[in-house]
Amino acid sequence: MNRFITTLKNIFEIEELRTRILNTLLFITVFRLGTAIVLPGVDPKRLNLNPQGLLGLLDTFLGGAFSKASIFALGIMPYISASIAIQLLTLALPYFQKMQKEGESGRKKLNQITRILTIFVTAVQAMTYIRTTIPADALLIDRGLFTISSLFILTAGTIFCMWLGEKITDKGIGNGISMIIMIGIVSRFPGAIAGEAMSRGSAQLLIFVLEIVALYFVVMGAVVLTQAVRRIPIQYAKQVIGNKVVGGQRQYLPLKLNAAGVMPIIFAQALMFIPTYVASLFAEKSDFAAGVQNAFQTYTTWQYNLLFGLLIIIFTFFYTAISVNPNQIADDMKRSGGFIPGVKPGFATSEYIGLVLDRITLPGAVMLAIVAILPAIANLLGMTTGFAQFFGGTSLLIMVGVVLDTLQQIESYLLMRRYEGLMKSGRIQGRTETVAA
Predict the structure, then answer these.
(1) What is its membrane topology (predicted)?
(2) Which of 33, 50, 267, 294 is most buried, judged by most C-beta within 10 A?
(3) Does domain 191-437 fall into CATH 2.40.50.90?
């Protein structure tokens, strides 16, 4: 406990870090206040929205803003959709590939294109949200006037959330976009715990304690899945530059066990409505189609989770293949004079990296699929739906990833402060292990 208090004291002694943390808290407060403001013309008392499936996942990311018909009802999600689209275009089209390789100027152009695309995506999603989600009996004004005004308000709300995310990244701590999503998820955690505790009551207090312990181990497992890497040793040849001999160092190429992150779960979740939709077209004429529709209407059936897990494994391999390029890694190593001991540079190195990547991707994909279906298992064991959602899935992985990234940035500030003191005293303690980029 004393060490924890000392760490907090050290954090707030660093002026820049203290300012960034306070800025982050300010921006997060503004975002949470915005999620509580209902769209003009809507009676919140008549709203009875209970989104399920992908819409329920979206409502979780937005901290309930979607179901409240808030001005931030779409939140940052249109920007995420636009970013994924631009990322896929970067992998598929030479024009975007060339732009990505232009350095800082290319990155600014891609960001500008992403912002423009976000406006169009938000407009389409806002129109769909207004027409299909807001019930007519909850409106206090004319439907046409409400549609026009809400279209502009929802679009402006998403742009404002995007601006908040960028400000958190620039002036605060951590990745702003991820931070906003995490705050939306965490905001529902106290209510979920309270709901689970009330459902158990005093008679089942021991069961509630065991659930909290199980949640702790699930979180630790998610941390392992997020942080686990396979390090490939890289040796750099010695070179004579002038009168100095440089190089000859051994570094490591870290390949993550889960290089795809949460994207496979998001992609798989987006496709899980297809079996229900297709089966509903033939449900009246076919008993088999009616059975399929019933099986995929809820996320707790074994059919749903089997297909969900298989899609996650497939998308994990797919996303890893497009995000990690062994050929490019091998070429970069060859140009910088690096090689893997016992492996020839060039094509052989690319094959070796690809083989290692395939071997670690399979267990990573299986573990990711298990984490994704844990909420369904928790719900079947009697936990409330809100509390079960924190036992795995996208919500847990996003929270773990954002927290770890934020802690790493805070730690870097503390290390820089420590290094300055060591350099002034002229002493060097410990050794920093180098990692190949």
Answers:
(1) Multi-pass membrane protein
(2) 267
(3) no
